[in-house]
Specification:
By secondary structure, this protein is α/β, with parallel strands linked by helices. The chain has two domains: about 1-140 and about 315-330, Rossmann fold (3-Layer(aba) Sandwich); about 145-315, 3-Layer(aba) Sandwich (Rossmann fold), CATH 3.40.50. Helices cover about 40% and strands about 20% of the residues. The chain contains 13 helices and 13 strands. The strands form two sheets. It has a seven-stranded parallel sheet with strand order 3-2-1-4-5-6-7, sandwiched between helices. A six-stranded parallel sheet has the order 10-9-8-11-12-13, sandwiched between helices. β2, α2 and β3 form a beta-alpha-beta unit. The longest helix has 15 residues, at about 15-30. The N and C termini lie close together (about 10 Å).
């Protein structure tokens, strides 16, 4: 069986679509499926490396629906996975018209995509679509590098050491969140050892200008494939509300989330309401409560334990298996 995946990444669009498609690709390949990506990766080196390191073939994104149909025919694709906010619905419709199975990964709405299977890994989703609907965080698509590090029980936080913090905002940090979060952490006047991921030289310069207070330290690093390992060592993770949220919950991390762009707002509110993570507000519009929330989490191990336990219980890491099961059941090799 051969599966094509149509998704993109870029400096402004980020890498979230690619990351969850890579997770599905890993599971399919492990089951003997051949996977091909049809993608515009926007020149983002980290995104390109995700495919290269896994030996996943990558082809240029077709310009229109005619090109996409020609590509899937040339590659002998049996099913197509689509994950995009901007891809015209005519593309998925044209592929489905050839008799091939189409699976669309969506967030809250289908955006007109025509599919046999719809996957929405967000909380409390009610999709208005015909076809098989796989909704909720039981279908969260998590990479192997994350799933293998899931602890057997939720971590228990204890006092006695300076909290370790990891702050990251996707592969590109297009909205320059890292320096703002570093300043909030410094403003808590609480001790911490923070590792902050900077996507480019400009961000590293901005982060270097944030003064650390007494008992505080910042270590600034480039984007890294060791992020899952870094997360398992963290007492507190600060990140944007998005696809990475489910990775944090699966790993049992105490997380403080930031709402960066409009399409993150609903997921942010629902995650906070469930008590799976703490919320510190919208990027660029932080109030006094952002510093107060971070200070409480830095100083209160019991509060971190509550978040870690709720999150770990919510995401079991097997969503990618459930989605792969449904896709393979729906497809007959050509």
């Amino acid at each position: 069986m051969i599966v094509g995946i149509r998704c993109d990444a870029g400096a402004r669009t980020g890498v979230g679509h690619l990351v969850r498609c890579v997770a599905l690709a890993e599971e399919l390949v492990a089951r003997g499926v051949e996977v091909h990506f049809l993608s515009d990766l926007g020149g983002v080196a980290w995104a390109e490396a995700q495919l290269r390191q896994r030996g996943l073939p990558w082809h240029p994104a077709p310009y229109d629906e005619v090109g996409l149909v020609a590509a899937v025919q040339r590659l002998g694709v049996d099913a197509l996975v689509v994950d995009s906010y901007t891809l015209p619905p005519a593309h998925s419709k044209a592929v489905r018209a050839t008799g091939r199975t189409v699976l669309a990964i969506v967030d809250g709405e289908t955006r007109g995509q025509d599919a046999d299977i719809y996957v929405d890994q967000n909380l409390d989703t009610e999709l208005d679509a015909d076809g098989t609907l796989l909704t909720g965080i039981d279908h969260a698509l998590l990479r192997t590098s994350v799933r293998r590090l899931r602890p057997p029980t939720a971590p228990v936080h204890r006092s006695g050491r300076t909290p370790k913090v990891v702050a990251f905002f996707g592969g590109t940090d297009a909205y320059r969140a890292a320096p703002q979060i570093a300043q909030l952490l410094a403003d808590t006047a609480a001790p911490f050892d923070a590792t902050v991921i900077a996507a480019d030289a400009g961000l590293r310069t901005e982060l270097g200008a944030v003064p650390a207070g007494e008992g505080q330290s910042f270590t600034i690093i480039d984007p890294t494939d060791r992020l899952p390992e870094l997360l398992t060592e963290a007492d507190l993770v600060v990140s944007a509300s998005g696809t990475s949220t489910w990775e944090l919950l699966c790993l049992g991390r105490a997380a403080a989330l930031v709402w960066v762009v409009d399409n993150q707002s609903l997921g942010y509110e629902k995650t906070i309401a469930r008590g799976y993570a703490a919320g510190i507000g919208r990027l660029g519009e932080f109030g006094d409560t952002a510093v107060t929330t971070l200070r409480r989490l830095l100083l209160d191990p019991a509060a971190r334990t509550v978040l870690a336990t709720r999150g770990w219980s919510a995401v079991d890491g097997r969503g990618v298996e459930r989605v792969a099961d449904a896709l393979l059941r729906a497809v007959s090799p050509r």
